[in-house]
Specification:
alpha+beta, about 725 residues, eight-stranded antiparallel β-barrel, 18 helices, seven-stranded antiparallel beta sheet, elongated
């Protein structure tokens, strides 16, 4: 797809949509950013379809009727991974379709910017795309033009499938004008498309195989100097091995792609879901959390819809438009030629499909008559009679459809919530591997539906399930206690994502597919520094996070102070000197002016602790860096008042700790110089304990984030509170 910026149509109006920007030019037509003049605050995407001008009045009327029927059907299709059609029409003979504005970052753009995708992320994309395709197939629709150009990444990491059915709308125009349908993008054209034969779900399976190939390698399956050269390879050449482009991928993927893109459609996977199942069995055979697609004994039935007009002449060739739900509703009838309209089942909430019926793939129509039971010689009277029947269905179906739509469950009206990150009580501290989510004023879900929480990484599109919320103490809550056990650290959740969604799901699912009822996103500029405090920092040993380093090294200082207290009581001057030097090394780090490696004599005294070498004190130590990055988080343009408040508390704690530890250092250096004088040891031990645990100076039985009280434990707690995420209604 070619991205452009200017077009003479910009500023003009199609129906009620004013075209504002030209986003892309592709084989299906021009894609514009637009706004509905009746709803100017709501952005849309408008595609002007690449249909050749139709000069003959009768042929133009036929195409108008066909376009209306097909677009009406597409407008009834609603699925979490489909970009829904929300409007369509004709303006000066130009057909156009309308979708809600979504991220225009396609998977093609993702590949261009970041290169090939890892195999597990490809698997997640594949499940989402396959779920959308299977839903479309169950509702009598083949995509027919699936490439990475029409797969859009959302900010929450989901992929939505765009341009569903658009190729068919373009083909209808070519048939009405009695011209050859242009080949268009040959990147994923199945052989039957290139040869002008009938298409069915196996055609989309072929294209999905080509999408997998491109995601894994960054490039198309076949390359050539012309579209015809590429087309010939689709017709005759085997699929190039993945190892030619990206060594190290499982060899079995070559066999999978060979089956998905078999020249004979009968040799392919029968369903997109079967392809997805086979892919996961190769790249993640031990995975237990994924819910596989349910295999069906027969491929999804997609019976061809008529290519000639069934509509009347009341549709003029000038300007007319349609927005589903605002006038006639959706067409809905089983008239012996396929499933179209509101009698189709609503989109399932689960990401995978249920078993299909026993319908078989229909026999191909005779050559030259793609929809044989309707003749192009049908007269205008016949079209008008059938169109009259369809109008009746429009009215009844529209009422039925609107009734269903107006009863949409809105559980989050007035709901608010927070997500609090914490350490596993059963593992070592400093890893933020647990989370507690609390939602107030959330309505009870319908029967057999659940509220699930998900942590999503916007950069990698990785989704981490957090669990299901249950009613408790007047709120909906979940507590993930974390995966840490004993001395084994749990997975730091703050490093796994930057967004939390609460979704309403039907049954148990392993990916978010239902309605988003609440969500929250960390402010990106501020969150960089919060992650430096709690997840990792590039220049510390082992990239230890700064607030974590303060906690761990201060705890070690406290422990070594108690060791010093013990050896001081024994009057063992060698041990006293070693313990004192150990404290100095902990406080100053390897770059400190008084740092001295402990000798073998200290080993003999079982005194070996010197910390990780980064040091707590000094301009480049843990205390100064932690205070700096807490401040950076607070002054970031997108910082919230919550972040600013708790960052201030962290800075206060750093000042307290620095004061206490500076005194510890002074007393330790005195002991290194004169181990016989242990009179300062009790105060040293007290100051080390204050630096670690803080001190309750006002006797309120609480250590507060105030001057003279907060220590390392409090500083770490308020660093975690900086990461508290507010959840609000909506996506």
């Amino acid at each position: 797809m070619q991205h452009v910026s200017r077009d003479p149509r910009i500023g003009t109006t199609l129906g009620t949509y004013r075209l504002e920007t030209l986003i892309a030019r592709g084989e299906l037509g021009l894609l514009f950013g637009a706004r509905n003049t009746q709803e100017p605050h709501t952005p849309h995407l408008v595609r002007v379809l690449a249909v050749v001008p139709i000069m003959d009045t009768n042929a133009r009327t036929i195409y108008h009727d066909q376009f209306h029927i097909e677009a009406s059907h597409l407008a009834t299709l609603q699925h979490p991974y489909l970009l829904p059609l929300v409007g369509y029409g004709m303006a000066d003979g130009m057909p156009y379709v309308v979708w809600p504005a979504v991220s225009t970052r396609s998977l093609s753009a993702r590949l261009e910017a970041s290169g090939p995708v890892d195999v597990l992320t490809v698997g997640r994309y594949l499940d989402q795309i396959a779920a959308a395709l299977e839903y479309a197939h169950e509702h009598a629709t083949v995509h027919g033009a699936l490439t990475t150009d029409c797969l859009y990444l959302q900010s929450d990491g989901r992929v939505v499938v765009g341009d569903l059915g658009m190729r068919r709308l373009v083909e209808l125009g070519a048939e009405a004008a009695q011209s050859r349908t242009p080949l268009g993008n040959p990147e994923a054209c199945a052989p039957e498309q290139l040869l002008g034969g009938p298409i069915d779900p196996a055609t989309d399976v072929y294209a999905l195989g080509a999408v997998i190939y491109r995601l894994l390698t960054g490039g198309p399956v076949f390359r050539g100097r012309s579209m015809d050269e590429v087309a010939q390879q689709h017709l005759n050449s085997p699929i190039p091995p993945l190892s030619r482009v990206r060594p190290g991928l499982p060899p079995a993927l070559d066999h999978l792609l060979a089956k998905a893109m078999a020249k004979d459609s009968a040799q392919r996977f029968l369903q997109p879901g079967a392809l997805a199942n086979a892919y996961h069995s190769i790249v993640a055979p031990t995975q237990t959390t994924r819910m596989p697609f349910v295999a069906s004994g027969n491929p999804a039935a997609v019976r061809p819809r008529p290519a000639t007009s069934v509509g009347g002449g009341s549709m003029a060739a000038g300007q007319w438009g349609h927005q589903p739900g605002k006038d006639s509703g959706a067409l809905g009838a089983e008239l012996g030629w396929g499933r179209v309209g509101v009698d189709s089942a609503p989109a399932p909430r689960a990401p995978h499909t249920v078993p299909r019926g026993a319908s078989q793939r229909p026999p191909p129509p005779a050559a030259g008559a793609p929809f044989a039971f309707l003749s192009r010689a049908r007269g205008r009277l016949g079209r008008n009679v059938l169109f009259g029947a369809l109008v009746l269905v429009v009215v009844v179906g529209g009422i039925f459809g609107l009734t269903r739509l107006t009863k949409t469950f809105n559980p989050a009206s007035g709901a608010t919530g927070v997500a609090l990150f914490m350490d596993s009580p059963q593992g070592p501290p400093g890893h933020s591997d647990g989370v507690k989510v609390i939602i107030h004023n959330l309505a009870s879900p319908p029967s057999s539906e659940f509220y699930d929480a998900w942590l999503i990484d916007s950069a990698s599109e990785h989704v981490t399930p957090l669990g299901t919320l249950f009613a408790q103490n007047g709120a909906y809550q979940l507590t993930d206690a974390g995966s840490g056990r004993g001395t084994s650290a749990g997975t730091n959740l703050l490093g796994m994502g930057d967004r939390i969604e609460i979704t309403l799901e039907q049954g148990r699912v392993n990916l978010p597919v239902g309605q988003v009822v609440l969500s929250g996103v960390f402010p990106p500029q501020s969150f960089v520094h919060i992650r430096h405090l709690l997840v990792s920092f590039p220049t510390t040993p082992g990239q230890t996070a700064l607030a974590v380093g303060v906690l761990q090294q201060t705890q070690l200082v406290d422990a070594q102070a108690k060791v010093l207290q013990s050896v001081a009581a024994s009057q063992n001057q060698v041990a006293i000197q070693c313990a004192a030097q150990s404290l100095v090394d902990l406080l100053e780090g390897h770059q400190g002016a008084h740092f001295r490696p402990l000798g073998s004599g200290c080993d003999a005294q079982s005194i070996v602790a010197t910390g990780d070498g980064f040091g707590l004190l000094g301009a480049g130590g843990y205390l100064a860096e932690t205070a700096q990055h807490a401040s950076n988080a607070a002054i970031a343009p997108d910082a919230t008042s919550f972040i600013r408040t708790h960052a201030g508390h962290v800075e206060i704690a750093m000042t307290n700790i620095e004061g206490w530890l500076a005194q510890v250092e002074q007393d330790a250096l005195a002991l290194v110089a004169n181990p016989a004088n242990t009179s300062g040891v009790p105060q040293l031990v007290t100051n080390a304990s204050h630096a670690d645990n803080g001190v309750d100076t006002n006797g309120d039985e609480s250590i507060d984030p105030v001057v003279g009280e907060a220590g390392a434990v409090t500083a770490y707690e308020h660093s975690q509170l900086m990461a508290t995420l507010t959840l609000v209604a909506g996506a």
